[in-house]
Every structure is written in C-alpha cells, then in structure tokens.
Automatic annotation (TrEMBL):
One of its GO terms (biological process) is RNA catabolic process. One of its GO terms (cellular component) is nucleus. Residues 1-112 form the Helicase ATP-binding domain. CDD domains: SF2_C_Ski2. GO terms for molecular function: ATP binding; hydrolase activity; RNA binding; RNA helicase activity. It comes from the Eukaryota. InterPro entries: Beta-barrel_MTR4, DEAD/DEAH_box_helicase_dom, Helicase_ATP-bd, Helicase_C-like, MTR4-like_stalk, P-loop_NTPase, RNA-DNA_Helicase, SKI2-like. The lineage of its organism: Eukaryota, Metazoa, Spiralia, Lophotrochozoa, Platyhelminthes. Keywords: ATP-binding, Helicase, Hydrolase, Nucleotide-binding, Nucleus. This is Helicase ATP-binding domain-containing protein.
Amino acid sequence: MKYAIATALRDKQRVIYTTPIKALSNQKYREFFEAFPERTSITWKQGASMMREVGWVVFDEIHYMRDPERGVVWEETLVLLPDSVRYVFLSATIPNARQFAEWIAHLHHQPCHVVASDCRPVPLRHYLYPVGSEGLFLVLDEGKYLEDNFTRAMRSYTSDETEKRRMQTNKRSENNVVQIVRLLKHRSLEPIIVFSFSKKECEIYALQIAKFDFTTEAEKKVVDEVFRNAIDGLSPEDRALPQVESVLPLLRRGVGIHHGGLLPLLKETVEILFGENLIKCLFATETFAMGLNMPARTVLFTSARKFDGQTYRWITSGEYIQMSGRAGRRGKDDSGTVILMVDETMNGDAAKQIMMGPPPPLNSAFHITNNMLLNLLRVEEINPEYMMERSFCQFQNYASLPSMYQELNELRSAHAAVQVEDEESVESYHQIRLCLDDLVAQQWQYIRRPQYIVPFLQPGRLIKVSTETHNYGWGAVINLKKRMRTDRSSAPESFYLIDCLLNSVPTKSESTDETSDAAELKTGLAEVIPIRLDCVIGISAVRLVVPKDLRAREARAGVLNAIEKVKARMGGLLPPLDPVDDMHITDAKFIEINGKVKAFEERLDHHWLHDDPRLSDLLAQYAKKEQLRKRIDQLTENLGSKVSLIQMEELTARKRVLRRLNFVSEHDVIELKGCVACEITSADELLLTELLFDGVFNRLPPEHTAALLSCFVFEERASDMPKLTKELSDALRTLQDTARRIARISNECRLKVDEDSYVDSFKPHMMDVVYSWTRGASFAQICSMTDLFEGTIIRTLRMLEELLRQMANAARTIGNATLEAKFNEAIEKLKRDIVFAASLYL
C-alpha cells in the first residue's frame, strides 16, 4: 500500500483508500494525515474529471465483499472503474485469493499478483476454559492440536466438582469472566480484549471488573487529560450525560467498553487510550476486531456461540481468526494468548473447526438492486446485463464449468457401469425400507422426549448411541444429569446429559448394523462420555450391574465385556424396550405411527427378497446407482443455471416493477421518477419516490418529515412501539399503505416479496425521538424516551441527516424548491450538539 501511495504521489496522481468500516477509515485518515498533511482529504468531489486523476484504489478488508449489503457496492465499483486504475487489496482471511486475482486480471486486463504469508510474527496459544473448572486447558499450541487436553477439558466441564463450583460461583454473584480476568491479571497477561456478542454483557462485565485497578497514578492522570480534551467541545449538558459520566471511573482503572451502542466520541476515546496502553482490560463486541489495528496480549471469548439474527450458533472459523488475531503484539510479546470460554459440552470436531478451520472463501454477494438498475439504465454505454456478466459471481460460475463437465461425464460412465439384478424388485424393497426408516425416526422423536425416556435411563441400562459423525454402538448408562444450560437452545433434551460408558474409538455412522458393534468393542478404549438425549438410537430392556468405581481401566473394560457376553447369549440382538407396553407411551399420534411401523415391517418380512442371501449386495449396488443418479440430476441442473446469466429472472421481474410504477418506459428509458430515485442511495428509493410524488412530504412540517424518514434508517431490533401524535400516526399509516401497494405490485410482476416483512422493515421506533430532537429537546431528554443505546440513537440521526440530503437533491431534481428548502430546514434542526460532534481523528 505504501508503494502504491508513493508511486501515485510521484506521478501526480490521486489515491483512493476505502474500507467498509467508518472507524477504520477515520483511524487510517489520521495516519495518512500525519504522513501527508497537505495531500490527505476525507471528502471527495464527484465528477469524471476527478476520476481521471485517480491512479490507485486501495481496498482494505476486501473480504467484506462477501457481505450482502456492503459487498455489492464494492463489486459494482470494481466492475465500473476504468482499466487505467491500479489496485491494492488487503485482507487476512481470503483462502481463494488466487481466484479473486484471476477475476481482477480478467476484468481489467492487467496482472494481479497475490502476495501471501502463512507466517505469524507472534505465535498464538489457544486455551479452553470450561465454565466452573479450576484452570485452563491448552488445546492449540502454535498450530498443533492437543486432543487429549480437549478431552480432559470436556470431562472437567461435566464433572460433579465443576458443577458444585458453578453453583458456589452463582451464590457469590461473581461470574466466571471476573475469575478468569483475575487469573490473567495475576499472571500479568494484560492488556486483555474480552469479546462478548452482546452490548449489555460488555457493560455488565466491565462494571464487575471495575473492582480491579490496572493503572498507576501517573497513568490515571494521563487518562484524565485525554478524556478532558475529548469532551472539551461538548456543552455542559452533554458532559453530564449518564454514559459520559459513568465511563470515566472505568477508564481511570484501566477498564474500557467498546460497542456500537456507545457514543462515537467515547468509542474513539477508548480506541485512543487502548492504543496508548492505558486501557488494560477492554470489553468489546466483534466489530472492534474488524480492521482496527489494536492488538493486545490476551484475547478472551466469553462464549463459543453467538446469535446471528436467526439462531444461536457456533462462531465460524473466520470470526474466530479475525478476533483471536488481535492477540500478540509484534515486538512486545513472545506469544499471544487466546482463551475460549465454553459453557456447554462441545465435540472435538466443532472445536477443531472453530480454531483450525479455514476461513470462509470470498464468494460474491452480488445481487441486483433497484438503485443499481436505475443508474445503469440512465447510462447509455452500460446496461444491467453488462454488469451481471462481468460480476465476480458470474466469474465464479464460469470458473467451475470445466470441472463440472468432467465430473458429469465421469458420473454418467460410473452410473452405466453399475448393473443391478432384479432392479425393479430391489427398488420396491428399498422404497419400503425408506418409508420404514422415516417412520422409525418419527417414533424416536417421541421416545426421546424426557417424560418418556428419562425414567428408564437408570445406571446399567444398555443404550445404543450415534452422534452426527459416529456410531458408538451399545453402551451402559452410568449417570443422568439435568443441565440448565445458558446457550438458549430450545430443544428440551438438550437439558439432559447422559454419562455413558462407551467404546471411545467409534466407527463411522454409516455402519449402524448390529454386527459392527462387536468389532468396535474389541478394538476400542472404554471411556465414560457425556452424550445428549438425541444421540440415543436404541434402548434395551437389559440392565447390567455396573461398579460404583470406574476410574480403573479394567473396571470400564469389564462392563464392555459384559455387554458383549449378553449380546452373544441373545444371538447378537439385544431385546428393546417396547414403547407402548414397557414405556407406556399412549399419545394417539404415536400409536398411529407405531401401527404404521409394524405394518411396514410386515411388508418387508413378506417381500420375496427379504430372505434372499443376495439382499445386502443387491441393496448396496442399488444404493450406489441411486446415489450416482441423484448426483447426475443435481449436477445437470446446476450446469444449466451456471451456463445462463445469473439472476436474469430477477432482472426481468424488477424491470416489470419499474415499468408498472412508471420509473422507466416500456422501452427501458428512464422517466422522471426514475431520475429522482437515482438520487436516493441510503434507503428504499422506490417507496420514498412514491411518497414524494404522492405529495406526502408537501403536507408535513420539517419536524414531522424528519420523524417519518427515521423509519427508513433505523435498523435495530426494538419491542416497544412509541407513542405517536395523530399527525405522525397518519403519516406512518400512509407509508405502510404505500409499502403494501409496492409489495403487491412486485408480487404481481413475479418478484417475490413478503408483504408483511417488507412493511415491518420500516420501523417507527425512533419517530417520537426524532420529532422531539428536531423540536429542540436535549440529548438527555430523548435518551430518557427510549431504552436504545445512546450510540444507536446518534448513528440513526446521522444516517437520517444523509437521507435528508438525498431527499433535498431529489426535490431539486423535480424542481420543487419549497420541498428542497423543507428538507434542508429539517437538516438544520437535526444537526446540533453531541449528535454531530466532530471525530477525534479528524
């Protein structure tokens, strides 16, 4: 990047540096301004003449191109930039960098070199901390995975001693984060970044840690001076805001908070203090790891799961790499420390995937938007098809074609080579068996319900266990524990853990027949393994007497040998518990399913192939042929979609919508409404243009106009609806009615839009706040009107100011000077005090 800047300055050219994160842009601006004070600008004048002076464009954190919202803008930019421009792309998490470079070379007819290094200047050591345990478990040491340590960590989590310690911790009201930070402070492993996936949790943890003092008196004086200078430009009323007053005591003790709900001024103050090593323990959400050059000695994850807007899931390897990469300071630390707290059982595959898995590939997030379509229709030289054909998405489609054709030919040859005797009969037998398997799966959904299965999970009960990846065969129940887990899982069986004595060297789950279990028991190692209820696939009527003390290997092996002997006496088949007669499941739906199971079992028994000695071989051959046929069908369908231009159906549908709404003519010539919509880039251009042409804003004063437009820029989740005046309620109803009309037209034009979801995407939760703010209320007053974070309010108001500017431009386009003046007046009422305080970096 430095070479690109030096080359451009030498040749009297301009360099554009762009990032997807405002905080990173501000930080880099400060760095560039200090190096080139007379040549660095954070603003840019639009125009073709300015673009002719651009020699280089630097894209930092280019992996954000996979982001559905931000990525598509970068992809459009890369397609439309002239071939004369040179590029620098920066990222730490792109495994398919060569493919991306090939696209750039193909797109702009210039070489694109991949410069990569696997060497990390400061090696990392990764630890697991099972909640409630006494210590840390080193599981990944400079790239070497220590499986034995992981097993010990999971065993520690499920032990009775750990459970007692968790209960004692809860009684003391001291959470596990406090304990581990105390340990890290004792070992002098600060500065520490504690990543939490909740803004509220960040603040709660920081307040609990505030009892520790990380700073010296001299450092406290520097913190006071930096903080005083940071808030110097605020009014006395803004300085008295609760968030401003509450953060200083934490900062003086070396504790910081960084998340999107914080006032931007305070966030930047925290960043500056952390960069100067005056904050020793920082509680942050994952956005802190996105590009900001703020390394620490230790990184602590408070959970291995996060809520992604839909479900609670394991964090991905890419997320883990991005955050854990903040550990280890070059030139200061010999190694960095990463600690992952786990508050639930975790299988080894999940841990390996998080810690050692490759980052997700850079796949295109390109999709057609109305704004893109209208802007392309406005330019004569370029059409939407041109953009789609040159997109990275289309390039990735084309790049996979040769290998797909080769695979298809190989599959067809393999399919033709498989011959199955009596294929029709084998197919009928296979279909009956598939139906039976489906019914048995439905059966087990009932059987595994705690009210039915738990009473039978006594010590010594023989159960058959299979996980997502392995079949453990038969084992003996040792203990049953009810766990009140904190992972928000909704599955009722997840609250139970069965300590089961099993063979710890399982076979693959495909081998689920009885005969495979004997081999497993002979070659494996007897271990007590915690399993979930949903891993039980068989429960026997047999119970064994198991020793109370199973610490000795011989005792555990003796139980497995006893299971083998019981199986041998019973001809290899253990008698199952009958779900109706033994377990007393009387649910009417279950009885119906149970009856169907027996009927299909009878059909299988009477099928003429059932006792045929060739049956296993015939079924295996048929399954192989079916698998090949399905793969051929799937590959053929995929090839058809890849050969054609992607998203053509959506493009056609969007054009129909624009014609129906009179944004473009029948011949795709842009109309006045389309030109107006092109001015709006930060919100829904179709709906705003419709409201503009319907005269909705003509009837509203500036305060009501700003309040209504807040529905387009507020993005947070909120539950309580605000109390609105009649004027605001009427304006909101008009917005929602217009949105429903657009959704109905879209569906009529075969562009699938969920009407309710579309209407609900315009959130009125900030309307009363914006209305009060534009009428002169103080920031403290509007904060008291809502439970939203202060930072969220400021971010919404700043986005609203940008939208109002675009609406003023739109009004100018239609020649409505009165409406343009109204939008500008709303901006004047909006833009004041702490909401628009200047960045500390600028």
